Amino acid sequence: MAKHISAAETFQISGDLNNAAVENRAILGIALQRVGNIAVEEGKYSDAVKLLTESLLYTDSAPNRTNLAVAYQRSNEVDRAIREAQKALSIDPDLYNAHYILGNLYFTKEDYSSALPELEKAFRISPDFELANALGLTYLYLKQPERAKLLFDEVQILTGKDSPDLRLVFAQAYERTNYPLEAEREIRRALAINPKHPKAQFYLGYLILQQGGSDRLPEAGAAFVEELKLTPDDFFCNFFAGVVASSMNEHEKAVKYLQRAVQIDPRRGEAYLFLAQSQIETNDLVGAEKNLRQAIVLEDGKPEKDYQARRTHFMFGRLLVRTGRKEEGEKELDISRRLQERSIQSSKDEISQILGKVAADSNTKTESADLSTSAKVSLTPKRTIELTQIKAYLRDVLAQAFHNLAVISVQTSQLTDALEKFASASKWNPDFAGLDRNWGIVAFQANQFDKAIVPLARHLKVNPQDKVIREMLGTSYYFNQDYAGAVSTLKPIEGSLASNPELAYFYGISLIQLKRNQEATSVLNNIALVSQKKPEFLFYAGQGFMILGDYARAIKELKTVVALSPSTAKANYFIGQSFIHLSKYDEAEKAFARELELNPTDFLSKYHLALTFIERKIEPEKTISLLEDAIRLKFDYADPRYQLGKIYLETGDTNKAIEQLEIAAASESNKDYIHYQLSIAYRKASRKDEADRELKTYQELKAANRKGGSPMANDAKSPY
């Protein structure tokens, strides 16, 4: 990564943008992979999946795919993990980790036929003990014990000397896959190497107890006794020694072992159950009752122990009946029967399951061949500190690389990509030097004002003297209709706004929106004062006075604009609008006519010119022609259709009126007056239900919008 960082800096400084981009993308691929791997180590598997998936956008490599497979596996998404491991091998068929992960994934799904070739390839590339164990188990599950034996012999040779620990692992593999003779052979080999090896006698005793039948119970018991000489306080050894003694009808001996087991771990209901059974046989009914009650307490509410609870309630019921408490005893027997109905196990199966559960808890079985899909994370304090330091470094690396790519995208005019990269850089390190300023400026220049606000505001908070950013932020607030934000941002530079009439206009309009009209008037006066010979700036003042409602002043300034620059688009249109507000329709007509001389396709001017005729009730044919022209220029322009609808209603052409009003209502459904006129048209056409519907819509909109006045006045309030 250091090489890529150095190369990226060199290329960027020299202006070689293509190679700079290549190096920065390589940095991202590496850094995202490492952050993803850390997330796996920390147990944040969903984060790891996202990070490693993102890394593939920059470096689609076999190691990255393999790491993603691990993240999916730890998230218990085994099928996705398999797909990623397969993709990794399609990129690099000899990648050890990919074969190893894929083999273990198949192993987890118990698809041993698919697991076998992957584990064999991994073992050939890099043999190790854990892999050998997984491969050996795979051979055994596939009923290939000879291949497993050859593999185990090879592992034993590779270790350099025979080891009892190794033999016990082999034994556990054989026992797990139902090869009891081979398992016993390996345990006895372990004992031959070291007769006092921890757990060896225990494993032997348990194997014989499970597989040897009643004839070999003495052997099992002897093995447990030998183990107890080494670990007299081992719960499991005492428990199984007691079970064997009980099975051999040596109940006094069984009681001794099981009482010791209960003393060592009083939370195990199984020990109380078997202890009570032997106490009944020795006629210690008081002790048996006490222990059965304790077993029930420990089993209560645990469905996974129903098989054990059935036996406990049955034994307790029989004991109660035997001691003269028949009614209470029948209740216990009834509980036992109900539990039996939920189970298909025989009495012998129940005992095996109880013993198997205890054995599983005692670690007689190994899961070392499986990659855990829900591995518990336990990081040391030292490792936690190390990872924190590494992540801090990688965050800076990622922010720098994303920022560099954003700058390159700006230089190659890819503004959308630049904004995405700036946002990614900020995600990794929002305090990265220069990021917010660059990001905000690019978003502003791309007219994405909503995206510009956050970085510009963050930068300005730290650098309040940056006037350029203050102006951009104020403008961005204005275009996002956050007028309070615009005013608070621009207020500190209010005195210098006269030199920037456009910005002063935004400031003035924002003040108007906040109902601070007196301040707005002062701002607009300043614009007009310094712009008397600059029509493009004076135009802003004219619009501002219109919005402020000072139509006479608006006309004055806009006429100056026209005098200085007769071809200024929309100047005559706004003059006409202002005259309409002053009810001076003759002057308005002239202004709109002049606008249409400059721009014959201006549908707004055509419509408003028609309005001047409507208000004066003159030129009906010319009025219709202008309204139809406006509609041809803009099909979904609702207001000229509304006016046409009214005209057709007045002339008795109800069908044409409905046609125009329906399109108008569909185009701008929030205008209450259109629905009102449409309800009248429907009623004239005897379409009562539709008329009632439109009237109801009108009333609802009227109440919601609190609108009043004529539609012409409503439309005329907006200078646009």
Helical content stands at over 70%
The number of E-state strands comes to 0
Largest sheet: none
Strand content: under 5%
So what's the oligomer here? single chain
> What would you say the CATH architecture of the domain at 198-364 is?
Alpha Horseshoe
- Kindly report the CATH topology of the domain at 198-364: Serine Threonine Protein Phosphatase 5, Tetratricopeptide repeat
Specify the number of helices: 39
Query: Stretches where pLDDT falls below 50 for ≥5 residues?
Result: 365-374, 707-720
What is the CATH first-level class name of the domain at 198-364? Mainly Alpha
Question: What distance separates the N and C termini?
Answer: 56 Å
Indicate the mean pLDDT: 90
Radius of gyration: 44 Å
CATH H-level superfamily of the domain at 198-364: Tetratricopeptide repeat domain
Question: Structural class, judged by helices and strands?
Answer: mainly alpha
Which geometry do the CA atoms define? Answer: elongated
Structure notes:
By secondary structure, this protein is mainly alpha-helical. Among the domains are: about 200-365, Alpha Horseshoe (Serine Threonine Protein Phosphatase 5, Tetratricopeptide repeat); about 635-720, Alpha Horseshoe (Serine Threonine Protein Phosphatase 5, Tetratricopeptide repeat). The protein is about 75% helix and about 0% strand. The protein has helices at about 1-15, 15-40, 45-55, 60-75, 80-90, 95-110, 110-125, 130-140, 145-160, 165-175, 180-195, 200-210, 215-230, 235-245, 250-265, 270-280, 285-300, 305-320, 325-340, 345-360, 380-410, 415-430, 435-445, 450-460, 465-480, 485-490, 500-515, 515-530, 535-550, 550-565, 570-580, 585-600, 605-615, 620-635, 640-650, 655-665, 670-685, 690-705, 710-715. Helix 2 packs antiparallel against helix 3 and helix 29 runs antiparallel to helix 30. The chain is elongated. It starts with a helix and ends with a helix.
